[in-house]
Amino acid sequence: MIRADLEIRRADPSDADAVSGLLRELGHDSPPAKTAQRITRLAGSNRDAIFVAVLDERVSGVAHIHMLPLFQADGHIGRLTALAVAPDCRRQGIGESLVNAAEDFARDGGCERIELTSGDQRTEAHTFYRAIGYSPVSQRFVRSLIRS
Q1: Whole-prediction pTM value?
Q2: Full set of structural domains in the chain with CATH
Q3: Rounded to the nearest 5°, which phi and psi values hold at 96?
């Protein structure tokens, strides 16, 4: 369900408070000042886009897409690095609208496919991703580079 009263637009630094709250939904503590800095920095990149969903004059969702050149093949891949919708706004087409905007950006940038990571515990998100056509295809391994 795509809502006619939903606005999807690029994020700007004035969205930082709302976006920080949405990122907390994903378990990321991103203070508004840092979020504003990131929005400003990434706005200057032709490989990144941060989209917000505005419903009833409220930022109710956010998505970030990054395009990476492939080494093993020609072309690029889009990486959806963040997608969050306010809990009281879920199941209203907001997430799908944000994903569509991210996919359009990636497609226009020459990406042939898009990938994302979702924590094992986020089973509702996995159901959503499957419902909009995403499939689990591999495992992701992570190692911290920060030395203690």
Answers
A1: 0.90
A2: 6-131 (3.40.630.30)
A3: -60, -40
